[in-house]
Amino acid sequence: MELMELLMTRRTYRRFDQKKISLDIIDEILLAARMASSAANKQPLSYVVIQNEEKVDAVFSHTKWAGYLPPEEGQPKKEEQPVLFIAVVQNLDINRDCDTDAGLAISNMTLAAWNHGVGSCIIGACNKPVLSEMFGLTENQKLHTVIAFGYPTHASYIADVEDKADAEAIKYYMDENRDYVVPKRNLSDVVKYL
Ligand SMILES: Cc1cc2nc3c(=O)[nH]c(=O)nc-3n(C[C@H](O)[C@H](O)[C@H](O)COP(=O)(O)O)c2cc1C
Q: H or E stretch including 121?
């Protein structure tokens, strides 16, 4: 995909086909993470890959989806679950202040996946103590997020934020086809030219 098309169409997906993601694509997603910039080139991040069905189920049970929607609408059903999770781990003995590094790596991963038609959802709302134990993390390893991947079974598209004074106007919602609509603030509201 051309770069701007990739950036414009990569959205968050929350319902997936149960088709597996090939190892070649998973390797490319991880390579994309490895290529991300990091402060002082310290490379403090590491990754836990969860692709075994039972383990994916176990991780899924500790994740929360689509906080703006009632769980019965936003939480994927069993047959809609992702087929892969990649956990992003911050190694604090290398750099304690690496949230930007994590964001850049996550962005690379979700774009590399989408380049192959693989959708993703970044999950911050997860039970980090339980998952950290499941992943065997040490005291100096902080779980940043888990990223869910799979082939999407719904569309997701952007809309303009209509009323910038309305704090609710940025909330994503589902349309009549259960596709996600994601309001984005207008450039004129977020850019100032000096
Ligand atoms: C740091 C971060 C944490 C997120 N955590 C969650 C989450 O726990 N559950 C969820 O369903 N979506 C989560 N999301 C996805 C956002 O809701 C989504 O990116 C946002 O609504 C914009 O949609 P878009 O990615 O399609 O542009 C998270 C995104 C980011 C960047």
A: strand 119-123
